[in-house]
Specification:
2 helices; two-stranded antiparallel sheet
Length: about 120
């Protein structure tokens, strides 16, 4: 039996962020203070391709801080790719932590289908 699941992604797991960056072939994120246009924020900084400033993950709140100047300083497609990759990697980490087997299938529309085997 299959079930449809909707996930609201909060970025809280450092290992999953690092795995997402590896998956995307991006530089590994760096913990610390990061400069945005007019402010400094602390967290796990991700360097997305084509972005002037990093995407900073506040692992405590789960929120992302970034300044892409309405797309002029960074394509939101890259942000969406990061969130999707994070959700995939976090799901795989948690499923494996519970002893589950995960398979992944890339769909034609760019989405990813994950199947988590649950023993009955």
């Amino acid at each position: 039996m299959s079930h449809i699941v909707s996930i609201r992604t909060e970025i809280r797991d450092e290992l999953a962020v690092k795995s997402a960056c590896s998956r995307l072939h991006w530089p590994q994120p760096v913990m610390g203070k990061h400069q945005l246009f007019s402010s400094q924020v602390e967290g796990l900084g991700v360097e997305a391709p084509g972005w002037r400033y990093p995407i900073v993950c506040n692992l405590q709140s789960g929120e992302l801080c970034y300044d892409n100047y309405e797309g002029r300083w960074g394509d939101t497609l890259q942000l969406d790719r990061l969130k999707q990759s994070y959700a995939i990697e976090k799901t795989k980490i948690e499923a494996r932590r519970q002893g589950r087997f995960v398979t992944e299938k890339q769909l034609a529309d760019g989405s990813v289908e994950l199947t988590v085997q649950v023993s009955t």
